[in-house]
Amino acid sequence: MKKGFLFVFILSLGIISTCFANEALLKEASAGNAEAQFKVAALYATGKLGNKTSEDRKKMFEWLEKSAEHNYLKAQETLCKQYLDRCNFEGAYKWAKKAMEQNSNIGKATMAYLLYWGENVVPIDKVKAYSLIKECSSEPLAKTLLGMFYSEGWFDFEADFDKAVKLAKEAAEKNCGKAYLLLWSLYYKEYFKTKDEKIKKKLYEAVEDGMKKNPFDIEIKLGYASNLLMISESEEDHKKGKDIVNEILDFGKKEASILLYIYELTHKGDSKKAFEFLEKTAEEYCSDSSMMLFELYIMGKNGNGVQTEINLKKAREIALKAISFNNQKFLEKYIPMYNLAKINADFKKTLGEAFIEDFDLDKYIKVAADNGSPAMMYLYSHVLPKGELKQKYETGAANCGWTEAQGMLSVHCFMEKDYEEAYSWAKKANEKGDYMGANTLGQCMLMGYGNCEIEEEKGLNLILDSIARGAPIITIGLAYKKYIDEQNTYQIYFLSQIYLKSISPNQTGMIEAINENIDYTKNMLSQEEIEKADNEANRILRLNLESAKNLLRRNLTNYGITHN
């Protein structure tokens, strides 16, 4: 009995002592001590002050804000994470900026995340994001972003699912909520490609583990809701998933409505209700909803079976609103449409004058290019005259991993006789299937340029294959000259048939010279060799023409234009 009394007495003393300590801490915090304010916030977070109610969480944020305002770095870094988890991107941006003033890696990683996604608080700038990531690469959030680069194949990163998963797992071990989200996203896409039950199990585990360790991360909850709505067949899970989405919508994460939109179509085929979701969230500027609505107003329907009346005025309003936020997706969609309307009468007629009037094209291309959009860097390089500035944007797009830019940069470096650079960019572009990269690589192999070993047959085949895929026929010129110098009768005859098609009709002297080469070499070849050369030349020329037509068809089809 005495022992029990003694235990209770000691316990009471401990509680009283803690109460006095907390009171002393609160007194210091109220007097403006930044460290004490941070510690009070921690007490509210752990329930040692209050009862972990929503009111207590509110007090936690109040004390964190006070401490952070006094420039206490730990408070600023904590707010970066807390606000990022809760999708309060304005708050995350504010404190990331402040923390960066103290050279905080957490601040840099948070800013990199915001620059990567934009989230309507800062223009998307993946180049700047990557630069910050390199400064704080040990941070879990920075590793997560590197995983995203690997998942998309940005910059010098080749798309690599396994590397992306490895980085996400490393960051998740350090309790980074966005790492769990990346893991879920990677497994989610992989599951819908493979329908592999093992992958399904992993995508469930990713969000369940993430929710346990990051209970306030709204985006992880959204991933969980996706599993319930899009993968589970249970009506009970569907109801639970919709409840979670509505809770997230109330919290202000408007992108959640996209999930309800897809659910209504997939499970119920309710096109009208799905359209209402899009309209509601697009009005409040949710970029994904806006893009879907934009395409619906342009084409009158989408691939999911939703239909509405074509309304080009509304489409333009949505596009310009999104562009005013430097929304990269819209810039990359709207600007090529605008360009096409300027040069294609059918497209212009379909869109109407109102859609393309009063639009400062060069300004917005430059804004997007300067904000790190590789597509717009590449496009902007096309509107600039030859010179350093043109090369700057083309190189910027190439460094971002933009395949077409890498291919064209290899061509321009080759023309400037910078063969090492030409060879380097050509290899990268060719690996991704770019025909201009293949063409330049072929030229280098044919001639041994750029410290490249001469591989004549392989080089010529690359050039011919690239022409068949749409490269300009005139690029056969270097090979043609080489074989004339070497007096290679078969190749002169064969390449003359192709090269002739690249010559302008008013270049009569050149045409006569090529025809003379054809007549001269024809007499020196067997009938079998002539037929072989003719057939192969005709095949390449036919494919080249088809490639040009297919490119135009793709451009038109992408924007709903009918064509013959």
Report what the structure shows.
This protein is mainly alpha-helical. Among the domains are: 402-471; 484-564, no CATH class. 76% of the residues lie in helices and 0% in strands. It has 31 helices and no strands. Residues 1-17 and 558-564 have low confidence and may be disordered.
- Based on DSSP secondary structure assignment, what is the total number of beta strands? 0
> What's the mean pLDDT score?
80
Q: How far apart are the termini?
A: 98 Å
Tally of contiguous helical segments: 31
Write the layout of secondary structure elements.
Layout: H1 2-30, H2 34-46, H3 54-69, H4 73-85, H5 89-100, H6 105-117, H7 126-135, H8 140-152, H9 161-173, H10 177-194, H11 197-213, H12 218-231, H13 235-251, H14 256-268, H15 271-283, H16 287-299, H17 312-324, H18 328-343, H19 345-351, H20 353-356, H21 361-370, H22 374-383, H23 388-399, H24 403-415, H25 419-431, H26 435-447, H27 456-468, H28 477-485, H29 489-499, H30 508-522, H31 527-558
Helix pairs in contact: 1-2, 2-3, 3-4, 4-5, 5-6, 6-7, 6-8, 8-9, 8-10, 9-10, 10-11, 11-12, 12-13, 12-14, 13-14, 14-15, 15-16, 16-17, 18-19, 18-21, 21-22, 22-23, 23-24, 24-25, 24-26, 25-26, 26-27, 27-31, 28-29, 29-30, 29-31
Summarize the structure.
The protein is mainly α. It is built from 31 helices and no strands.
Keywords:
76% helix, 31 helices, disordered N terminus, disordered C terminus, mainly alpha
